[in-house]
Specification:
Blueprint lengths: L2 E5 L5 H12 L8 H4 L8 E6 L7 E13 L5 E14 L8 H16 L3 E4 L13 E2 L2 E8 L10 H5 L2 E6 L3 H16 L5 E2 L23 E7 L2 E11 L2 E2 L2 E2 L1 E10 L2 H11 L5 E9 L4 H5 L9 E4 L2 E4 L2 H7 L6 E8 L9 E6 L5 E5 L6 E4 H7 L6 H6 L4 E2 L4 H9 L12
Parallel strand pairs: 4-5, 14-15, 18-21
Antiparallel strand pairs: 1-2, 2-3, 3-4, 3-9, 5-17, 6-17, 7-15, 7-16, 8-10, 10-11, 11-14, 12-13, 18-19, 19-20, 21-22
Bound molecules: coenzyme A.
Coenzyme A binds next to helix 1, strand 4 and helix 3.
Length: about 425
């Protein structure tokens, strides 16, 4: 049995959708195919066919995205990232290596094109580690009660100057303002993934049958001195229990780089009439909302894996981010899936936090699977902690700690947007 990976075009929409439907089994009437594939970059969309058959056994696409990573000495930097999505294998063809062939194809293409990172959200945690991905950020989902109190004394004056108002999300104007703010905030937020322009409008198209009783998505827009400075995308759902209003608010995305604006937005979100609770996803472990309300229990925290990262090219990826402190270490990288990475690399970071990574024949200071570098890439999941967990081997005593310090960053990365 042989699998070939073939390019798809807009004319293949229905066939692509059929594979996705078979793999994810949702109600197709809720997702008009032209709308939900409207943001696809067809040059990055592929199908798998087996034994020359015209039938598609699998599909995948990737988006031209970026992730905000640690820069030199506490700054931030944006690193291009292929955002892998719509990965589906038809149930008739599963567990015959189709996904493996699609991943090999994706890595080879990105390697060829010089894209150093691939990122994804995993449908199931067991799938992607074997292909070199690792969890690089943790997403917190908060469940706040109506009227939750946020205590941030030094931000009160600034928050009072922020005005908020809400508008329907599904409009060209709202989509452009949201997209511009999204890019601006992502650039200033560690771990944030940014959408390409082509996704800006489709992202906010209302799909009535997916609402499941919620109102159409709204944008709560924050302004300071007449300029937009942040937004929350949310939907409310009316609910009555024993004649008491128990409506819910679900916040799909909340973005601002300014804590006072976050405070103003959060106060509006917990103050809607006829509601009892607010669900906010995509937050990170250092999220101010958690600490302003009194900690994880008060904020009703649940935690999940967020962005899975894979270094496609170890040298380019380690050069693209910055570092907190100098080091000069040889890393013996284990990566059987992308053999061009599997060798000794000398990572040298100067006093200004700028790194260079070159092949070397020197003896290694550390041995580590490529997953360990993906896990630590955003400054979370430290190399020292991974050494303690038995995932990284210190060959020269103290090397794991040195690399750990160099790769660390404050604060923790945020959860990645949906893609
Ligand atoms: C997950 C999915 C893409 C896997 O495709 P597949 O063609 O069956 O995968 P492969 O045959 O190439 O499997 C490669 C390896 O991954 C393992 N694997 C694949 N899917 C797995 C899963 N869901 N859980 C655990 N292991 C899995 C296989 O057992 C195999 O292991 P091996 O290397 O030890 O032999 C496919 O089952 C699917 O479409 N599932 C539903 C949709 C989905 O979850 N998509 C992923 C979106 S992020």
């Amino acid at each position: 049995m042989t699998t070939s990976i073939v390019p798809l075009t807009a004319a293949d929409r229905q066939r692509l959708f059929a594979v996705d439907l078979a793999a994810f089994f949702f109600d197709p009437s809720a997702y008009p195919v032209d709308v939900v594939t409207g943001h696809f970059d067809w040059a990055r969309t592929f199908g798998a066919s087996r034994d020359g058959s015209n039938e598609l056994a699998g599909i995948y696409t990737s988006y031209d995205m970026a992730v905000t990573a640690p820069g030199a000495l506490g700054t931030l930097t944006s690193v291009p990232m292929a955002g892998l999505s719509w990965v589906s294998v038809h149930p008739d063809h599963r567990r015959r290596g189709v996904l493996r062939d699609m991943m090999t194809h994706h890595f080879a293409r990105m390697h060829e094109q010089g894209v150093a990172l691939s990122g994804l959200h995993a449908a199931e945690v067991q799938i992607y580690g074997r292909f070199g991905y690792a969890i690089s950020s943790v997403e917190l989902e908060l469940e706040l009660e109506r009227g939750a109190v946020f205590t941030a004394p030094s931000l009160e004056d600034a928050a009072a100057r922020v005005t908020t108002r809400f508008v329907a999300a599904d409009s060209d104007d709202a989509a452009q303002v949201v997209h511009d703010l999204h890019l601006g905030c992502a650039g200033q937020t560690l771990g944030a993934v940014s959408r390409p322009q082509r996704m800006a409008r489709p992202f906010l198209v209302d799909l009535p049958l997916t609402r499941q009783g919620q109102e159409p998505c709204q944008v709560l827009m924050a302004h300071l001195d007449g300029q937009p400075v942040g937004y929350a995308l949310f939907s409310r759902q009316a609910k009555w229990t024993n004649w008491q209003a128990k409506g819910t608010v679900t916040v799909r995305e909340l973005a601002t780089a300014d804590p006072a604006t976050l405070l103003a937005l959060a106060r509006r979100l917990v103050d809607f009439d006829l509601t009892a609770s607010v669900m906010i996803g995509g937050r990170g472990p250092d999220d101010p909302l958690v600490w302003w309300t009194g900690g994880p229990r008060a904020a009703g925290v649940k935690a999940f894996d967020s962005l899975w990262l894979r270094l496609i090219d170890v040298d380019a990826a380690l050069t693209a981010r910055g570092y907190s402190s100098p080091c000069d270490l040889v890393l013996d990288v284990v990566d059987p899936v992308c053999p061009w990475n599997q060798r000794a690399w000398r990572l040298t970071v100067d006093r200004s936090g700028v790194g260079s990574c070159l092949p070397t024949s020197r003896e290694a200071d550390l041995r580590l699977p490529v997953q360990a570098l993906g896990a630590a890439y955003l400054g979370s999941r430290s190399i020292a902690a991974q050494a303690h967990q038995g995932l990284v081997t210190d060959l020269t005593t103290g090397s794991a700690l040195l690399l750990s310090r160099a790769m660390s960053c404050d604060p923790e990365p945020v959860g990645a947007i949906e893609f």
